[in-house]
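We examine the record.

___
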Amino acid sequence: MGWTFPWASSFGGEFNFDFGVGFTEEQQRKRDVTYNFSRGNLSSRANDINAKEAVAEGAAKIAASTGTDWGTYSREAPGMSAFVLEDGVIYHTYSAYARGLDVLWSQYQWLDRAPKGRNEQDFWIRRHDEYDHE
Protein backbone atom coordinates (compact mmCIF):
# COMPACT_ATOMS: atom_id res chain seq x y z
CA MET A 1 0.00 0.00 0.00
CA GLY A 2 3.00 2.30 0.21
CA TRP A 3 2.55 3.12 3.88
CA THR A 4 5.71 4.14 5.71
CA PHE A 5 4.84 3.69 9.37
CA PRO A 6 5.96 0.53 11.23
CA TRP A 7 3.46 -2.33 11.60
CA ALA A 8 3.41 -4.97 14.30
CA SER A 9 2.34 -8.44 13.24
CA SER A 10 1.44 -11.60 15.10
CA PHE A 11 2.40 -13.77 12.11
CA GLY A 12 4.47 -16.80 12.99
CA GLY A 13 3.75 -16.68 16.72
CA GLU A 14 1.17 -18.10 19.10
CA PHE A 15 -0.76 -14.86 19.58
CA ASN A 16 -3.46 -15.62 16.97
CA PHE A 17 -4.18 -18.95 18.64
CA ASP A 18 -4.16 -17.44 22.13
CA PHE A 19 -6.66 -14.75 21.13
CA GLY A 20 -8.98 -17.00 19.12
CA VAL A 21 -8.28 -15.85 15.57
CA GLY A 22 -5.93 -18.66 14.50
CA PHE A 23 -6.94 -22.29 14.12
CA THR A 24 -5.23 -25.57 13.31
CA GLU A 25 -6.21 -27.89 10.48
CA GLU A 26 -7.24 -30.46 13.09
CA GLN A 27 -9.59 -27.97 14.77
CA GLN A 28 -11.15 -27.23 11.39
CA ARG A 29 -11.67 -30.93 10.61
CA LYS A 30 -13.35 -31.49 13.98
CA ARG A 31 -15.31 -28.21 13.63
CA ASP A 32 -13.82 -27.38 17.01
CA VAL A 33 -13.31 -23.68 16.35
CA THR A 34 -14.36 -20.87 18.67
CA TYR A 35 -14.35 -17.47 16.99
CA ASN A 36 -16.10 -14.30 18.08
CA PHE A 37 -17.58 -16.19 21.05
CA SER A 38 -19.26 -18.73 18.75
CA ARG A 39 -18.30 -22.37 18.32
CA GLY A 40 -18.46 -24.42 15.11
CA ASN A 41 -17.47 -24.08 11.48
CA LEU A 42 -16.31 -20.72 10.08
CA SER A 43 -16.96 -21.59 6.44
CA SER A 44 -20.71 -20.96 6.58
CA ARG A 45 -23.23 -19.92 9.16
CA ALA A 46 -26.05 -19.72 6.61
CA ASN A 47 -29.12 -21.85 7.27
CA ASP A 48 -30.53 -22.82 3.88
CA ILE A 49 -28.66 -24.97 1.36
CA ASN A 50 -28.67 -22.32 -1.41
CA ALA A 51 -27.18 -19.73 0.90
CA LYS A 52 -24.53 -22.21 2.04
CA GLU A 53 -23.57 -22.92 -1.58
CA ALA A 54 -23.36 -19.20 -2.38
CA VAL A 55 -21.23 -18.57 0.70
CA ALA A 56 -18.95 -21.51 -0.17
CA GLU A 57 -18.52 -20.27 -3.75
CA GLY A 58 -17.70 -16.74 -2.59
CA ALA A 59 -15.31 -18.07 0.05
CA ALA A 60 -13.48 -20.15 -2.55
CA LYS A 61 -13.07 -17.06 -4.76
CA ILE A 62 -11.72 -15.00 -1.89
CA ALA A 63 -9.19 -17.70 -1.00
CA ALA A 64 -8.16 -18.22 -4.63
CA SER A 65 -7.56 -14.48 -5.03
CA THR A 66 -4.81 -14.79 -2.41
CA GLY A 67 -3.32 -17.94 -3.94
CA THR A 68 -4.69 -20.57 -1.57
CA ASP A 69 -7.72 -22.72 -0.79
CA TRP A 70 -10.54 -21.88 1.65
CA GLY A 71 -9.37 -24.34 4.33
CA THR A 72 -5.94 -22.74 4.53
CA TYR A 73 -7.29 -19.20 4.15
CA SER A 74 -9.81 -19.63 6.96
CA ARG A 75 -7.26 -20.84 9.52
CA GLU A 76 -6.88 -17.19 10.41
CA ALA A 77 -9.89 -14.96 10.95
CA PRO A 78 -10.10 -11.18 11.36
CA GLY A 79 -9.45 -9.86 14.82
CA MET A 80 -7.94 -6.81 16.48
CA SER A 81 -6.53 -6.38 19.95
CA ALA A 82 -5.21 -3.29 21.68
CA PHE A 83 -2.64 -3.20 24.47
CA VAL A 84 -0.96 -0.57 26.59
CA LEU A 85 2.42 -0.71 28.28
CA GLU A 86 2.25 1.02 31.64
CA ASP A 87 4.97 0.93 34.29
CA GLY A 88 6.55 -2.12 32.63
CA VAL A 89 3.27 -4.09 32.59
CA ILE A 90 1.36 -4.91 29.39
CA TYR A 91 -2.42 -4.66 29.68
CA HIS A 92 -4.89 -6.05 27.15
CA THR A 93 -7.45 -3.26 26.76
CA TYR A 94 -9.70 -4.25 23.86
CA SER A 95 -10.52 -6.91 21.27
CA ALA A 96 -12.92 -6.97 18.31
CA TYR A 97 -13.79 -9.65 15.76
CA ALA A 98 -15.65 -10.05 12.45
CA ARG A 99 -18.10 -7.20 11.78
CA GLY A 100 -16.86 -5.48 14.93
CA LEU A 101 -13.85 -4.47 12.83
CA ASP A 102 -15.85 -2.64 10.17
CA VAL A 103 -15.45 0.65 11.99
CA LEU A 104 -11.67 0.38 11.44
CA TRP A 105 -12.21 0.03 7.69
CA SER A 106 -13.83 3.44 7.25
CA GLN A 107 -14.93 2.91 3.65
CA TYR A 108 -17.51 0.36 4.87
CA GLN A 109 -19.09 2.99 7.10
CA TRP A 110 -19.77 5.14 4.02
CA LEU A 111 -20.93 2.25 1.86
CA ASP A 112 -23.33 0.98 4.54
CA ARG A 113 -25.12 4.33 4.41
CA ALA A 114 -25.50 4.39 0.61
CA PRO A 115 -28.98 3.73 -0.86
CA LYS A 116 -28.10 0.12 -1.72
CA GLY A 117 -25.65 -0.44 1.10
CA ARG A 118 -22.52 -2.18 -0.08
CA ASN A 119 -24.43 -3.42 -3.14
CA GLU A 120 -22.37 -6.59 -3.04
CA GLN A 121 -22.86 -8.76 -6.07
CA ASP A 122 -20.74 -11.65 -7.25
CA PHE A 123 -17.09 -11.38 -6.21
CA TRP A 124 -16.49 -7.77 -5.23
CA ILE A 125 -13.27 -7.86 -3.18
CA ARG A 126 -10.25 -6.37 -4.96
CA ARG A 127 -7.03 -4.83 -3.81
CA HIS A 128 -6.10 -1.33 -5.02
CA ASP A 129 -3.75 -2.63 -7.73
CA GLU A 130 -6.23 -5.14 -9.22
CA TYR A 131 -8.75 -2.73 -10.78
CA ASP A 132 -8.75 -2.23 -14.54
CA HIS A 133 -7.08 1.03 -15.43
CA GLU A 134 -8.56 2.50 -18.59
Observations:
- The chain has one domain: 15-129.
- The chain has a mean pLDDT of 78.
- The longest helix spans residues 49-65.
